[in-house]
Design brief:
- The protein is an all-alpha fold.
- The protein is built from 13 helices and no strands.
- It is elongated and about 90 Å long.
């Protein structure tokens, strides 16, 4: 979840989301239809089912789902490597992030069908739970990140210039108000829980900052009585400045929070990576060796 890959609701990001959801839906429907009768049967009846030898976790197709799904999930680690070498010309971070999301979701779907919707060993259950948590934290982090605002300083200065024409000195007053009402910043190395605890404070700061700049602007003496068009310009510029003041707080808070969220997501992903070879080793010892014999 890199800043350079930042998405926005609507536009291109919305199209990517819809495309991914469509792809997952079609794939899930196709895989389900392929073995619907088998997946709906109880565990005892499955043994007698004609698709048992192919769709069971150790079967040719079921095991294939597991292999391809695992490869796709491990491919996600390439995104972490790409972030480490952000200056290298290896494609846009946005494309890598979308690939990260796509391979993670498709890989997870294949793992679910690999399990045939049953978890008969503790290690399989733990691995499945870990995978689910990694996917959920990844999705939450990705789209919280996409919703994190990035205040545009140029828009602020343009609005202040407009206000300064109507109320000379307004720009300096707003800059002074923002300077004395700094946004609370938390050490980047703080735990995720510490940053979650700071969310109410950031919300209060955003609200109070908005009220403060509105008061400062309204209190600024105008050069002359404002006509209808000037009043409209004044209100529009005031809204832009207030929006910037509040979005700056949201941006600082959300960026700090998501930095720790990414660390949490990476930790869970590494735990999952450690569990995968254990799961493979158990499968190898208890019956999958025939595939290579």
């Amino acid at each position: 979840m890199d800043r350079g890959a930042k998405g926005r609701p609507g536009g291109r990001t919305a199209r990517v989301v819809l495309l991914v959801l469509l792809l997952l839906s079609v794939l899930a429907y196709g895989l389900w239809r392929l073995g619907e009768d088998f997946y709906l049967a109880d565990l005892q009846s499955r043994v007698e089912h004609e698709a048992y030898e192919s769709l069971r976790p150790g079967g040719l197709i079921g095991h294939g789902y597991g292999i391809v799904g695992t490869i796709l999930i491990l491919t996600n680690l390439l995104y972490l490597a790409r972030r480490r070498f952000a200056r290298w010309h290896l494609g846009s971070m946005a494309a890598w992030l979308n690939l990260h999301v796509l391979t993670g979701l498709v890989g997870t779907l294949l793992i679910v069908f690999h399990s045939a919707f049953q978890f008969r060993t503790p290690i399989a259950l733990v691995t499945a739970i870990s995978l689910g948590i990694v996917v959920v934290t990844g999705i939450v982090g990705r789209y919280l990140y996409a919703l994190t605002p990035r205040p545009d300083r140029a828009v602020l200065e343009q609005a202040l210039a407009s206000l300064d024409e109507l109320a000379p000195g307004c720009r300096a007053r707003v800059h002074h108000a923002l300077a004395i009402h700094q946004v609370t910043r938390i050490d980047a190395h703080q735990w995720l829980l510490a940053k979650l605890a700071a969310v109410p404070k950031w919300v209060r700061e955003a609200r109070s900052r908005g009220f403060l700049v509105s008061y400062v602007i309204e209190d600024a003496p105008v050069a002359a009585p404002l006509g209808r068009q000037e009043r409209r310009r004044f209100r529009k510029a005031k809204r832009a400045v207030r929006k910037y003041a509040t979005r700056e707080v949201v941006s600082v808070g959300a960026s700090s929070l998501l930095q720790s969220w990414r660390g949490f997501h990476r930790l869970l992903a590494l735990i999952l990576v450690l569990l995968v070879p254990i799961h493979i080793a158990v499968a190898w010892v208890y019956g999958y060796r025939w595939i290579f014999s």
